[in-house]
Specification:
Elements (H helix, E strand, L loop, with lengths): L4 E11 L7 E6 L21 E3 L9 H5 L5 E4 L2 E4 L9 H5 L5 E3 L2 E4 H9 L2 H6 L3 E6 L6 H13 L3 E6 L5 H8 L4 E5 L5 H8 L4 H16 L6 E8 L7 H14 L6 E6 L5 H7 L13 H12 L8 E4 L6
The chain binds iron/sulfur cluster (2 copies).
């Protein structure tokens, strides 16, 4: 039988924020949400894509000449890709002398990916870490991730699932069977706000969170850990009302089950990725958050009575 394959946009070694200890994080391509602020836009669309990187381009125009579909043209701003015409033949990628034209991500087999991440097994063991799957949305690759985690568990490697939570129960259940740690995004409690900013309701997401809570309760040793993550997005999630609503949800629905609730301050560092994809981004000129704003949101979180030890604020804030 042919091995499962999945598109991986990036493998980052030595991560320290995607679960406990020192880890390798694997980012899968494709996500069922379309968050307006998405920090990994190259991971939103499932399937292969190409992009062009201005910084690497020497404007030789070899790519334009090589394209059999006439899908590329140059102007003062750079090389543009007509995605309606592009057949992803790869001729431009092959011909580009400076890797400015590139496929986003790479297809991996489960065996290949297991072999790759196991190169750092000693580090995971020495620094209480492991392997995290992220994205995009790793549950969009559930059969692949299930087998990947199963094989890592057989090697004694700690596994973490970083998820937006939107997936079918049939996708989530088998992955959870081999998961030691879940990082779960809660962006909004209000379904209409969730729909507005992510283009999908949070109904299934909260049902899946309930399943994860049930799984933790059922595992007698309470071995699976749960971290909640909330991106602080100016004008969207970053309101005291929303943060307090999420805090109350955690307090009332997940008592004693959440080890950490992380408020992740927005930054616009991914702006260049939108440029490479030639996509408009409403947050391109959005500044870093002020410390005072972050402090107010933290207070809103604590006002719900959750323990201060479980609350973590991460990300850059504006300096005075
Ligand atoms: S991948 Fe092929 S069709 Fe698409 S822009 Fe490059 S050369 Fe043209
Ligand atoms: S072939 Fe590469 S370096 Fe040359 S113009 Fe195209 S993208 Fe730029």
């Amino acid at each position: 039988m042919e091995e499962l394959k999945s598109l991986v946009i990036e493998i980052i070694r030595g991560t320290t924020h995607d679960g406990p200890g020192l880890r390798t994080t694997v980012f899968f391509k494709g996500c069922p949400l379309s968050c307006r602020w998405c920090q990994n836009p190259e991971g939103m669309k499932g399937g292969q894509e190409i992009w062009w990187e201005e910084r690497k381009c020497i404007r030789c125009l070899e790519c334009v000449a090589a394209c059999p579909e006439g899908a590329l043209h140059e102007d003062a701003e750079g090389i543009h890709i007509d995605r309606a015409k592009c057949t992803l033949c790869g001729a431009c990628v092959e011909t580009c002398p400076s890797q400015a034209m590139a496929f986003i991500g790479e297809e991996w087999t489960v065996s290949g990916l297991v072999e790759e991440v196991l190169k750092y097994k000693e580090y995971y063991q020495a620094f209480d870490g492991g392997v995290t799957v992220s994205g995009g949305e790793p549950l969009a690759h559930a059969p692949f991730v299930t087998e990947f985690f199963q094989r890592l568990k057989a090697e004694g490697v700690h596994t973490a699932l970083d998820t937006c939570g939107l997936a079918s129960l049939d996708a989530l259940r088998p992955v959870l069977a081999y998961t030691d740690h879940v990082l779960f995004d809660i962006k909004f409690i209000d379904p209409s706000m969730h729909q507005h900013y992510t283009h999908r309701s949070n109904e299934i997401i909260l049902q899946n969170l309930a399943l994860i809570a049930e799984t933790i309760r059922e595992r007698r040793d309470k071995a699976m850990k749960l971290w909640i993550r909330t991106p602080l997005i100016p004008g969207a999630t970053a309101s005291e009302e929303n943060i307090a609503a999420i805090g109350r949800y955690i307090r009332d629905n997940l008592p004693g089950l959440v080890e950490r609730w992380e408020l992740c301050a927005f930054n616009p560092i991914c702006k260049s990725k939108y440029k490479k994809l030639e996509l408009p981004w409403a947050y391109a000129d959005c500044a870093l958050m002020e410390q005072e704003t972050v402090d107010r949101l933290k207070q809103a979180a604590l006002s719900t009575g959750l323990a201060s030890e479980m609350l973590v604020v991460s990300g850059l804030v504006a300096s005075l």
